[in-house]
Amino acid sequence: MKQRVVKVENCEIGDDRPTFIIAEIGINHNGSVELAKKMISGAVAAGADCVKFQKRTPEICTPKDQWHLERDTPWGRMPYIDYRHKVEFGMNEYDEINEFCSKSNVMWTVSCWDEQAVDFMEEFNLPFYKLPSASLTDINLINRIKQTRKPLIISTGMSTPEEIERGIETFGKENLMIAHATSTYPCKIEELNLRVIQTYRDKYPDIPIGYSGHEVGLAPSLAAVTLGAAFIERHITLDRAMWGTDQAASVEIGGFIRLVNNIRDINASLGDGIKKVYDSEIPIRKKLRRVV
């Protein structure tokens, strides 16, 4: 059987490897590079392996019938298309992020929502891409990412098994990873359906399977690790009360530190599944075992 491992820069993501932990900043920065840097620093302090942003071309990703709908924003009331531009980073901002991540010694990447976004992000030679759940049926976008020859995580929230299979067939299984997700922000505990991780592991034995969580709390993400998730992605924020649709489903810095520490403890405790008597048990065995 082919090994269920994908190499990303100097990391291997897959079975029998430490869980790869992605801190999803997304658009929680609300258009501020300084806020983004604080989140990057928090993710690094927590021990995350990677930070991730989102890149959209607003005119492509925003339905035209919503462009001129008025919306209350941190910058006042404005048309929705103007708001979408406010929260998008351009070349100058990503240059700063690239330099800051390099100095912080942390990997970074993005979820691309359209083909122009991929063209834009190729300027930065990112180690891998993520396809958001909303774009899983965008075959042209999948093919554009495939052309980069970079590894890809596909997120499978709001998607049927048939849609997921079509996305996998389009990209191919080489350099592909699959994230189980439920696309509700925040998600009800009873709709997380974590056993889908095992379903994917059984169905796709040569693809690393992970979990992208949008729940409140940490326990489900920890359970996902015990179910075999090779990578965990959680949104990170400075304050869950900040402006933004993803903030309530995000984890603050202190919580992210606990999340990473607990995942590392789980990694260390799972072992190899082979029952044995440890050297540390031998003195106890001699003392307590009455019949041999």
Folded structure, characterized:
- 37% of the residues lie in helices and 21% in strands.
- With 292 residues, it is of the alpha/beta class.
- It has a single domain, classed as TIM Barrel (Alpha-Beta Barrel), CATH 3.20.20.70.
- The strands form 3 sheets. It has an 8-stranded parallel beta barrel with strand order 3-4-7-8-9-10-11-12, surrounded by 8 helices.
- The longest helix has 18 residues, at 253-270.
- It starts with a strand and ends with a helix.
CATH level-3 fold name: TIM Barrel
Which geometry do the CA atoms define? globular
Alpha carbon gap, first and last residue: 41 Å
- How many domains, as an integer? 1
CATH class descriptor? Alpha Beta
Tell me the fraction of residues in β-strands, as a range.
Answer: 15-25%
The total count of helices amounts to 11
CATH superfamily grouping: Aldolase class I
Largest sheet: 8 strands, parallel, barrel
Helix content: 25-40%
Radius of gyration: 21 Å
